[in-house]
């Protein structure tokens, strides 16, 4: 190489910087990292926190999630000096606090938000109720936000629909029969280690039903267990895809009810799923108006649902991990005042009923 034409390290640095700037401009990031949001919802104690910790590669013991919790993950992209960020929200308590989804599902981040619905396979008598309550709540909120965004961008709804069909496949043969969820949705069937010991007929009903639900909403479906590294790895890949846009492998697809289900976006079909597990005479008596209603009838006939909104036995304020001396002392004081007030009210009500201490029917306060 002729003298004077040799490039120094600074020349290479300038070339690399210009290359990165061009790539960033083409990707619309202008040198800034992309930001995405994932909202985890699902069954109580289904393992949402465990999935998040494994994805973030944090070696921590999962703690019960109180209300809505937030964390984030970062990832360097290529050779650029930028980092993509994923904001992760987790809704605790099953369906009890579903209204809190209003916080992460906001106007500012709707277009960059995905949902992970984690359903406990070991509790089939709660699966449909949990799914229906949380999906409906999230859908109502998304539609509310879209209606607000349409004031400034009337085409926003059409843009969201286009993105949904790109995930599924714009020429999918079931296009006229499915109703895609507006945002990317992944359904995780957790606790597969327990589910795999179920009676084969039960597994078949659960597997077919979850395949239909996922296909109906244009969602991906993955069975998972935090005790099986292979299944957890597949789940992490799905989270990474939503968080950072990484490529999903189609080689792991599985629809065998005797094995862990793994169905990427748009890879299933009504023909492959088949008919709902219901007797022909039962089918004729059903009042179902949509395929989703029909599958609900079939599944809940097999697994009668019980509400997951139970009396809150555990008091989060007494959890030692949230101890706060000043707050706890004040709460104790207020509880004592409340108890005194309750006793006084009961005594006065009793006196009023019996005519009061003086017997003249006057309640003296």
| Approximate strand percentage | 5-15%
**Poorly predicted tracts of residues:** 358-365
Mean pLDDT: 85
Spell out the helices and strands N to C.
HEHEEEHHEHHEHEHHHH
What can you see in these coordinates?
This protein has 365 residues and is an alpha/beta fold. It is 42% helix and 13% strand. The chain contains 11 helices and 7 strands. The protein has a 7-stranded mixed beta sheet, sandwiched between helices. The chain starts with 8 loop residues before the first helix and ends in an 11-residue tail after the last helix.
How do the strands and helices of this protein lay out in sequence?
Layout: H1 9-27, E1 35-42, H2 48-55, E2 68-76, E3 83-91, E4 113-120, H3 124-149, H4 156-168, E5 185-190, H5 192-195, H6 200-216, E6 220-223, H7 229-244, E7 262-263, H8 270-273, H9 280-285, H10 291-302, H11 325-354
Parallel strand pairs: 1-3, 1-4, 4-5, 5-6
Antiparallel strand pairs: 2-3, 6-7
Key descriptive features of the protein:
alpha/beta, disordered C terminus, 7-stranded mixed beta sheet, 11 helices, single chain, 365 residues
Brief digest:
By secondary structure, the protein is α/β, with parallel strands linked by helices.
């Amino acid at each position: 190489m002729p003298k004077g034409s040799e490039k120094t390290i600074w020349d290479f640095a300038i070339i690399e910087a210009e290359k990165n700037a061009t790539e960033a401009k083409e990707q619309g990031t202008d040198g800034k990292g992309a930001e995405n949001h994932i909202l985890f919802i699902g069954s109580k104690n289904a393992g949402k926190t465990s999935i998040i910790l494994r994805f973030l590669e944090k070696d921590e013991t999962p703690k019960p999630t109180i209300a809505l919790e937030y964390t984030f993950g970062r990832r360097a992209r290529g050779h650029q000096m930028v980092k993509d960020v994923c904001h992760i929200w987790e809704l605790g308590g099953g369906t009890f606090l579903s209204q809190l989804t209003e916080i992460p599902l906001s106007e500012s981040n709707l277009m960059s938000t995905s949902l992970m619905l984690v359903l406990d396979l070991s509790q089939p008598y709660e699966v449909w109720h949990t799914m229906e309550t949380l999906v409906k709540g999230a859908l109502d909120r998304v539609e509310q936000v879209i209606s607000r965004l349409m004031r400034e961008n009337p085409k926003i709804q059409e843009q969201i629909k286009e993105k949904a069909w790109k995930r599924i496949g714009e020429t999918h043969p079931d296009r006229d029969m499915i109703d895609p969820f507006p945002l990317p949705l992944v359904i995780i069937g957790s606790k597969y280690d327990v589910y795999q010991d179920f009676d084969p007929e039960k597994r078949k009903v659960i597997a077919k039903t979850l395949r239909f639900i996922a296909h109906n909403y244009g969602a991906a479906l993955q069975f998972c267990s935090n005790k099986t590294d292979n299944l957890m790895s597949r789940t992490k890949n799905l989270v990474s895809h939503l968080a950072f846009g990484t490529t999903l492998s189609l080689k792991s697809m599985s629809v065998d009810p005797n094995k862990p289900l793994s169905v990427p976006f748009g890879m299933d079909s009504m023909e492959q799923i088949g008919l709902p597990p219901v007797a022909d005479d039962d089918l004729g008596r059903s009042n179902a108006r949509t395929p989703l209603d029909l599958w609900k009838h079939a599944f809940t006939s097999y697994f009668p649902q019980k509400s997951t909104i139970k009396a809150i036995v555990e008091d989060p304020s007494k959890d030692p991990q949230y101890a706060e001396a000043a707050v706890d002392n004040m709460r104790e004081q207020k509880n004592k005042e409340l108890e005194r007030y309750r006793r006084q009210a009961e005594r006065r009500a009793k006196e009023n009923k019996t005519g009061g201490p003086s017997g003249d029917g006057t309640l003296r306060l």
